[in-house]
Write a structure and sequence with these properties.
The protein has one domain (3-100): Phosphoribosyl-AMP cyclohydrolase (Ubiquitin-like (UB roll)). By secondary structure, the chain is mostly beta strands. The protein has helices spanning 35-44, 128-131; strands at residues 15-21, 27-33, 48-51, 56-59, 68-75, 82-88, 107-110, 117-120. The chain is built from two helices and eight strands; from the N terminus they run ββαββββββα. It starts with 14 loop residues before the first strand and ends with a helix. 11% of the residues lie in helices and 34% in strands.
């Protein structure tokens, strides 16, 4: 059996993917892959996602230079979520988020249900206007 056939693709032919920094364990981002993106990721050792907004393959870092080198591709117990263990390159400290932050998960819920708010926990490391052309 082809290993790609073991992935449970959704109705649109996509699977959710979490990118985790290998060295720190930080969750950097969430994205989607189609079959071709996963094949190219494994072939090249570089993260390739499927951009739903652009309706095409998206080589992480193709515009920003913030490339993810992939060390491991793992699949969860239900075969419907992938985890990439990556090293983020292109800026020090590393930037994975299009907002210019290290991680896309930079908002922390605080204060509970009634008086709650989202607190920004990570600084912008580089102005996104200077990253994307």
């Amino acid at each position: 059996m082809n290993w790609l056939n073991e992935v449970k693709w959704d109705g649109a032919g996509l699977v959710p993917v979490i990118a985790q920094e290998r060295a720190t364990g930080d969750v950097l981002m969430f994205a989607w892959m189609n079959r071709e993106a996963l094949e190219k990721t494994v072939q090249t050792g570089r993260a390739v996602y499927f951009s739903r907004s652009r309706a095409r393959l998206w080589f992480k870092g193709e515009e920003s230079g913030h490339v993810q080198l992939v060390h491991e591709v793992r699949m969860d117990c239900d075969n419907d979520v992938l985890l990439l263990k990556v090293t983020q390159h292109g800026h020090e400290p590393s930037i994975a988020c299009h907002t210019g932050r290290h991680s896309c998960f930079f908002r922390l819920q605080q204060g509970g249900v009634l008086a709650g708010e989202w607190k920004i926990t990570e600084p912008v490391l580089k102005d996104p206007q200077s990253i994307y052309k």
